[in-house]
Design a protein that fits this description.
The protein is an alpha+beta fold. It is built from three helices and seven strands; from the N terminus they run αβββααββββ. It starts with a helix and ends with a strand.
C-alpha cells in the first residue's frame, strides 16, 4: 500500500510540474543578424554592424534601424532625443524608442529590441 501511495504522489508531482512548465511565458527569441546598415546623419556616414534582435525578425530589425537612422538624419529633434539616456523616450520610430548614447538600441514597450554597434 505504501508503494502505491508513493507512486501516486510521485505521478501527481510530475503532472503538476508538467502543467506548470506549460503555463510559463515563452522566452523571447534572440537573433544575430548578418550584414550591416549604412545611413548618413548630418553628412556623416553611420555604419551599424553586429545587429542583434530580440522577439522580432532580422528583417524587421534592420528596417527599424534604417528608419531610425533616416529619421535622425532629417530631424534634428530626433537626433538630439536619441542622444539622451533613458528614462527619456529617445527617438520614436515604428513603435520603438531608439537611443544612440552610450549604448545603441531600439526597444518597444512589447519587449522587442534591436541592438547594434557603430
Amino acid at each position: 500500500m505504501r508503494r502505491l501511495t508513493a507512486a501516486v504522489v510521485a505521478a501527481a508531482l510530475v503532472l503538476v510540474a508538467a502543467l506548470a512548465a506549460g503555463n510559463e511565458a515563452p522566452t523571447a527569441r534572440a537573433a544575430v543578424c548578418s550584414g550591416s546598415v549604412t545611413e548618413q546623419i548630418n553628412g556623416r556616414t553611420i555604419r551599424a554592424r553586429s545587429i542583434a534582435t530580440r522577439a522580432t525578425t532580422c528583417t524587421n530589425g534592420r528596417g527599424v534601424l534604417r528608419s531610425f537612422l533616416a529619421k535622425a538624419d532629417r530631424s534634428e529633434s530626433c537626433h538630439r532625443a536619441s542622444k539622451r539616456p533613458p528614462p527619456t523616450s529617445g527617438c520614436g520610430i515604428r513603435g520603438f524608442n531608439c537611443f544612440r548614447n552610450a549604448s545603441t538600441y531600439c526597444a518597444s514597450p512589447g519587449g522587442k529590441s534591436v541592438m547594434w554597434k557603430e
